[in-house]
DNA sequence: TTACAACTGTAGTGATCGCTACAGGAAAGC
DNA sequence: GCTTTCCTGTAGCGATCACTACAGTTGTAA
């Protein structure tokens, strides 16, 4: 069934164990933050001893960085990008905003953990935080490119401003959803956000 | 000089000690989150023994709740509300947004700690988190009233939506400032946010 | 002077922290 | 069979955790 992966076979339940450890970690970290994520609790939740965790991951920092990485991958996978060539700019921006919103609903861990790490400003940077900021920087560039393409009238400073506002809106709406729960319609709010961005772009273009 | 406060005089450096403890706590909590805030570290930073901390505060939960409370008070104090009767609605909304922005620049701890606590979803609610959510609910109602007053054409559902969007924008822009530091002009972004809200209100009124 | 309330300092409690040493089991290759 | 590699289980390291008991100090009021 599952034959050779690379030259060397994967043994027993190593892959499965790694997955279980990451599942437990994302759960604990989402509840208690970076410092609150204790190896003992993760061990209890995933049913594997601490030594297994330390066999798969160098240390706690490495573990949490791996969680961020996997969560981001899942979020990206949930993001089915809209067709690049369809409809008006307005329709395309709205479409993109809705895609982002549904991806956040499907895979919220990435942004939740990322924001938690971001708000903490400890002297020694956890590598998970650094990783989140890199991903975010990447997203920033992508969105900036999109604005530059859709709104040719914008000067670079305006594109920067608008991009920052766009990402901030996404963060804030996500937080609102985390607080408000089912009472908050994230997709509708992102649609509104797209509208707002469009109007702002028009204002800044003039 | 400082005579009777209530009937009983305040002794020695109790008030001063309480202040130093809270100062140290806000610093530590901002760096390391709720779980990461250890009494030993707070004790070291403020130069007072743990027993003093426990004399002033019931437990760690109580301490952090007090920090949130004081931080909110300071933020409110930094918020010099605009004159209720001056200018067009647009000018008044923009003015308010700028006031909120500068207050956040002057007293950022409140929102930072609040958001950190908000994103954590531990089974047993820390009272600090509850306190933040109450304050936020209060702010929500105030902003909703403002929208209802300035934009009479909005139906209640639209007011709710817009208010959620307004608060989310504030949260997100604050996070952007925390990440971007000096590269982010918070006041300018809040001005943009006011503009966006105005345009959205117009769209939702029609 | 006495009495008391308001703090501070010392010295711990048992529990939990991140992490490690190391023996052993289970599957794959020889 | 034997070895090698992968992974788990047990036990425990020193450090730190939240918190407390309690004696000591000090300003104020009677």
Describe the structure.
- 2 copies of one chain form a homodimer.
- With 206 residues, chain A is mainly α.
- The first copy, chain A, folds into 2 domains: 1-57, Arc Repressor Mutant, subunit A, CATH 1.10.10; 60-205, Tetracycline Repressor, domain 2.
- Helix content of chain A is 75%, strand content 0%.
- The first copy, chain A, has 9 helices and no strands.
- The first copy, chain A, has helices at residues 14-36, 39-46, 50-56, 60-78, 89-106, 109-119, 127-150, 156-180, 186-205.
- In chain A, helix 5 packs antiparallel against helix 9 (186-205).
- The longest helix of chain A has 25 residues, at 156-180.
- The first copy, chain A, binds a DNA duplex (30 and 30 nucleotides) through helix 3.
Key descriptive features of the protein:
homodimer; 206 residues; mainly alpha; Tetracycline Repressor, domain 2; 2 domains; 9 helices; elongated; disordered N terminus; DNA-binding
């Amino acid at each position: 069934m599952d034959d050779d992966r690379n030259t060397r076979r994967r043994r027993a339940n190593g892959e499965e164990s790694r997955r279980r450890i990451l599942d437990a970690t994302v759960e604990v970290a989402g509840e208690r933050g970076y410092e609150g994520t204790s190896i003992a609790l993760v061990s209890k939740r995933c049913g594997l001893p601490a030594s297994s965790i330390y066999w798969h991951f160098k240390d706690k920092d490495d573990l949490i960085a791996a969680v961020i990485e996997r969560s981001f991958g899942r979020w990206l996978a949930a993001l089915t990008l809209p067709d690049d060539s369809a409809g008006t700019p307005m329709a395309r921006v709205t479409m993109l905003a809705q895609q982002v919103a549904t991806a956040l609903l499907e895979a919220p861990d990435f942004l939740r953990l990322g924001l938690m790490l971001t708000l903490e400003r400890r002297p020694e940077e956890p590598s998970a935080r650094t990783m989140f900021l890199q991903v975010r920087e990447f997203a920033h560039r992508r969105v900036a490119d999109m604005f530059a393409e859709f709104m040719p009238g914008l000067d670079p400073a305006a594109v920067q401003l608008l991009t920052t506002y766009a990402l901030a809106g996404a963060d804030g709406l996500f937080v609102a959803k985390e607080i408000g729960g089912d009472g908050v319609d994230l997709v509708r709010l992102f649609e509104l956000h797209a509208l707002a961005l469009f109007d702002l772009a028009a204002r800044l273009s003039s």
